[in-house]
Amino acid sequence: MMKDVPSLLEATQANKAAWEASAPLHGTGAGWEALLKAASEPGFSTFDTCLAQTLGALDLSGKRAVQIGCNNGRELLSLASFGAVPAVGIDHSGAFLAQARLLSEAAKLTPEWIEANVYELPSDMRRFDFALITIGVLNWMPDLARFFEIVAGLMAPGAQLVIYETHPVMEMFDPVAEQPHEPAFSYFQQVPHRQDEMFSYDGQDHGTGTTSYWFPHALGEIVTSCIRAGLHIERLTEHGHSNREPEYDLYEGRAAQIPMSYTLVARRAG
């Protein structure tokens, strides 16, 4: 192993511990109460306009959906407003899945919530008609090729996959650096970023947590891994807007606009 590069097991265990430690930040307070209330109302969806348009252009009616890296389940449950059946959410954090169960009760939906390292899923997993991966999931994955093989294995013949992720080019920049518009990292960096801060969606500093590892992946690696797993890419669209924490908003709306996010739609052969 290269120095500072953890093994797959070390990385996944560390990342699980970091998310478990951060879960209490998201399951209390006004934001959580508002989310619970919203989940109980008709047409519940937390998707932004971009992802909503992508999903709206697909025929998801009656499709059994799985989300890999589902966090607190809000996005899997949101798929119901597009006609899909939220069937299974997979995440390594039991604490976030406990929140998912509360949200699904509020929404009167009954998906199965599976706590597991995605690299060690149960051998009897079913296959699904639709798979969803959203913001940040790919960068927690030490072995991207193996990850996409597992994702493809969860998809029935003809099933579609939608990925809505941060663009790897934006990963080159640090919004809190002294000169945030100067690249801070190589696009081709292979050593993971070691992090110690608590995770949150509000852009606030919640102090130090436990060590975690964030793995940069170039767009070529993502696309190639997807193809080699047997998935046919139907669309790859790059966007000039952020789907990350608020501090990344400073990169939007510039004359020299960098790509900030992307949508990939793929299908498993029928």
UniProtKB/TrEMBL annotation:
From which domain of life does this come?
Bacteria
UniProt xrefs under Gene3D superfamilies: Vaccinia Virus protein VP39
Entry keyword set: Methyltransferase, Transferase
Q: Which segment of the chain is annotated as a signal peptide?
A: none
Name the InterPro entries on file. Methyltransf_11, SAM-dependent_MTases_sf
Q: Which residues form the Methyltransferase type domain?
A: 67-163
GO MF term set: S-adenosylmethionine-dependent methyltransferase activity
* Biological process per Gene Ontology, one example term: methylation
Any Pfam family hit: Methyltransf_11
> Can you name this protein?
SAM-dependent methyltransferase
According to its UniProt entry, this protein's organism is Celeribacter baekdonensis
